[in-house]
Amino acid sequence: MSLYKSIALSLLLSASFSVVADSLPITPGMWETTMNQTNSFTGSNTTVNSECVKETEFDPNSLMEGNENCSIADSKVSGNRMQFAMECNMDGSQAKMNGEFESNGDNGSGKMTMTMYMAGQKIEMEMDWTARRVGDC
Predict the structure, then answer these.
(1) Taking every pair of C-alpha atoms in the chain, what is the biggest distance, in angstroms?
(2) Please, what is the end-to-end C-alpha distance for the chain in angstroms?
């Protein structure tokens, strides 16, 4: 699912993981996602992305199949909300992430915090995003 894969890739700065969780419902169509990112190096920025989504559910298991750099410390789905915590080891760099995502079929939102240690330096990042279906593909 490329819309959510794009979000995950941006969120994890190319980190990879495998999630074991239930799926969340979405409505196929053209989706617009607005992502706000703040980190200790580059400050804040906002990006907007539009993409055609054909799937009817967001299945976290499909995000980055076959990658083993991260492990889930905690993951749970309750209704239309998913919460997660994960830890990653990427070529000696350590990262810890906590986040949540909520889907209401034709819109969704989420947020995540990440703390990463690279070459002895601490990097902190906060992200939030909103996604909404804007029409048919």
Answers:
(1) 47
(2) 15
